[in-house]
Amino acid sequence: MTRLALLLCAMLCAGQAQAACRQALALALDVSGSVDAREYRQQLDGLAQALEAGTVRQALMQLPQTPVRLSVFEWSSPDDTTLLVPWTDITSEHILDGIIATLRGTNRVPRSPGTGLGSAMQHGAALLEQTDCTLRTLDISGDGQSNLGPRPRDVKRQLAGRGVTINALVIGADTPTAGDRRQSEIGELSSYFRAEVILGADAFVETALGYDGYAEAMQRKLERELQTLVIGQIVRP
Question: Which N-terminal residues, if any, form the signal peptide (predicted)?
Answer without folding.
Answer: 1-19
